[in-house]
Each structure stands twice: as C-alpha cells, then as structure tokens.
Amino acid sequence: MTLIGTPPNILATSIMETYGGLEPFGFFDFTPMGAIVLATGILYFVLIGRHLLPERTPGGQLVEAYAIRDYLSEVRVSERSLLVGKTLQELQLGDRYDINVLEIRREEKLPLVPASDRQIQIGDVLVVHGASHNILAASEAHGLDASPEWKFDDPEAATSEGAHAIVEVTLAAGSSLEGQTLKESDFRARYGLTVLAIQHRGEALISNLADAPLEFGDALLIRGPSERIAHLRRDQEFLVLEAPPIDPRQTRNAPLAVLILVGVLIVVSLRILHVSTAMLIGAMLMILTGVLKMDEAYRAIEWKSVFLIAGMLPMGIAMQNTGTALLLAQQIIGLVGGLGPLAVVMGIFLMTALLTEVMSNAAATVLVTPIAIDAARSLAVNPRTFVMAVVIAAATSFLMPIGHQANVLVFGPGGYRFSDYTKVGVWLNVIIFIVVAIVLPIVWPLSR
C-alpha cells in the first residue's frame, strides 16, 4: 500500500534510480494497485477461499487446543514403590506405559527437571501426562499413590511456581531435527524441556510422541523452566509461537508522535524530501522530543531487513554490468513479445510470482526488476508499469508454506497441510493475475 510497506517496494524503487535512472515511486504510488489487490484477496476468501479449507483449526488455550487436559495427573512415590533409587532412564515409563514425566516435586524445593539421570526418592510427586488407563496401570505396578494435595488443574496457570511455562514452537525451515524423532534427537536431555503434544499434519498427537518423526511445520507444545525456554527462543531449530510481551501504553506523547508521523508523510507525499531523509528526520524528532528513548529506537530497527536490502542491491548492479538483465529481457520478448507489451508484462509477473515461491520476495524483486526495466525499454513502453507488476507479483507467495515467513508461522498452529496452501493459493494467484492484467494498464498506462 505504501513505499515502506514491504522490502520489495523499497528495493524496486532503489533499483529504478540506480539501474534505470528513472524517477522513483512516490510514497503512495503503490496505494491504488495495493488497494485493488487487497480488496480482491478479501473477496476471494469471503466467497471462495474459506470454503476450500478443511475444519482442522484448533481453538482455545494451548492445552485445550491439544486436548491433553484430561491426561495430566500427579502421583506420589510411596515407601513400597519399586521406583525408589532408580533413574527415569532405567524406569522407561515412556516405552512401557506411554507416560511422560513432566516434573518432579520434592518437599518444599522448586520443581525439578525430569532429567534422564534423576533418581527417584520416597515422597517425590511426579507430574505425569498420558492416557488415564496407562497412568493407573503404572501406579498399580510401581506403588504410586494419587496425590490430591498437589493441584495441577491448568499448566498454563502454573508458570510462576518454579518459573515454569508452556509455549508452542514450530520446526523451522532447514532444521536439523527434521526427520528425527524426539528419542533420536534426545530432546529432553538436549533442551531440558518436555514435549506435551505435537500438531502433525493438522492432527494433535498426545501419545507415542517419542517415536513420531518431526516434519517441517510441525508445532510442539512444550513445558519447562522459563530460562530453558528463553534459550529455545534463540535456537535456530525452532520458531517460538507466542504473543510478545505488551508494554503499558504511553499515551502522554501520542499526539506528538502522530503529529511527527503526519508531518513526515506530508513531506514525502509532496516530494519535498526523499523518503529516506524524511523518515530519518522523523525518527530523530521522535527521540529529541522524548517520544522514544534511544534504546527503544534501536530495538525497533529491523536489522535483518537493513542488511538484506544492502546486500541485495549489488545483485541488480551486477546484472546490469554483465548484460544478464538485457539478455533475459530479450528472451522474454522473443517468447511472448508478438502478443504485445501487456503479454510481456504479465509474463514477467508470472515469472516473479513463481520465483517468490522458492526464494525470498526481496531476492525475486532484485533479480527481476532489472529484467523488467530492460524489457520495457526494448519495447519503448513505460518501465514503471513493468516494475509495479514485479512488486505486486513478489507479494503473491500463496502456493506453498515456504513461500513467505508468514505462511510458515501459521502452518503448524493453524493445523494446515502443505496441500492446503496450493489448494487455496492457486486460485488466488489466478484471480490476482487476471485482475492485474485488466487494471494495471489503466492505473499505470503502458504508453510513456
């Protein structure tokens, strides 16, 4: 919708200046086409898309969503118990009874992590999870008594005592754990955390978890010490899915913040200053007037995007200097140029849309924008029309969960399967393709 709405918009505009010597897009030049594509997407999902999705989406709190509340219990180790003096690894409760020991509570001490080498003592209270008949069978066989004085009704509420918490994580793309089971990866010993349940291909697994091979997009419900979970947030194997902490609203400076923002937008829209200069001045005013503190401003910067854009721009320059962009543009014109400039535009649109399914939309934009500019110049038509087609296509990554980070983030929690994206996304891509072919030449005429 705006120049700063997504990295492809910024990248394409920069390439237009550095590569083509063209007048860059203004701040709101993307709004007409963006609004049309937005309306198309909303109408599609209201009328068609939602009916193509199966009813698999879990709801409610985390524990309710995985349907494991009825499988949580506590048992006390009695004097007659056969578990006394043995370690959890020796007991193999998981293999024998499909029971998962989540926590060990010992007198007045904080809850203990159920490490495999932890020895069981008389009076220990084991917080276990599993089928009720399996818990009963293990209790009878090993001298375990029910422990009514320990309350464990809702594990999500039990985050303060012992600083334990429950979070949901999803397996990241390229994770080394893909294809391994929890047992093979030695998950508990490696992370000091317990897996309560797994969302696998849209279904919640609450038994035989240790033997289920993990796949990309699987969501794991995990419980353990808060410091362990903090380490997991920095681990490249997983993405932790949780709401970020919400800071109290600071409404005192809100009018001033809005005034600065509106001022920057007016300056940019009137082209009094370049967008980068105006935004930098706006950010400095936010700090100088006390709206933001310096450390808050640093934290607000998306450094990955900064370095991504800085690293991608030389690729466009290299394509110009080596003649690669011109060569590819001529190939596309030779293929569909006989059908007219609109056919070339939509051919470039289709190429970008397919590329963005297997690479980042920023990379696809940097790769195709020089080709689009050279193709437009070869046909003696408006290059801005071609570049606008590229940035729209770079945002249409609907066919696969790996097409965009937003697709990955909702894959596991939403209970989706790989085919769901294709089933819904292919028609959305087709409809947007048709809408762009009709509307783009009207909003951005091909004639110079």
Kindly describe this structure.
50% of the residues lie in helices and 11% in strands. With 448 residues, it is an alpha+beta fold. Strands 7-6-8-5-9 form a five-stranded antiparallel beta sheet. Helix 1 (7-18) packs parallel to helix 13 (303-322), helix 1 packs antiparallel against helix 17 (383-394) and helix 16 (361-379) runs antiparallel to helix 17. The longest helix has 26 residues, at 418-443. Residues 148-162 have low confidence and may be disordered.
Keywords:
9 strands, 19 helices, 448 residues, five-stranded antiparallel β-sheet, alpha+beta
Give me a quick take on this structure:
This protein is α+β, with helices and mostly antiparallel strands and 448 residues long. Helices cover 50% and strands 11% of the residues.
Write the topology of this structure.
Blueprint: H1 7-18, H2 31-47, H3 62-65, E1 72-77, H4 88-91, H5 93-97, E2 100-105, E3 125-129, H6 132-142, E4 144-146, E5 164-171, H7 182-185, H8 187-191, E6 194-200, E7 203-205, E8 219-225, H9 226-233, E9 238-241, H10 254-269, H11 275-288, H12 294-300, H13 303-322, H14 324-336, H15 341-358, H16 361-379, H17 383-394, H18 405-411, H19 418-443
Antiparallel strand pairs: 1-3, 1-4, 2-3, 5-8, 5-9, 6-7, 6-8
Number of helices: 19
- C-alpha Rg, in Å? 28 Å
Measure the end-to-end span.
Answer: 23 Å
Beta strand %: 5-15%
List the strand order in the largest sheet: 7-6-8-5-9
Order of helices and strands: HHHEHHEEHEEHHEEEHEHHHHHHHHHH
- Average pLDDT confidence is 80
Indicate the percent of residues in helices: 40-55%
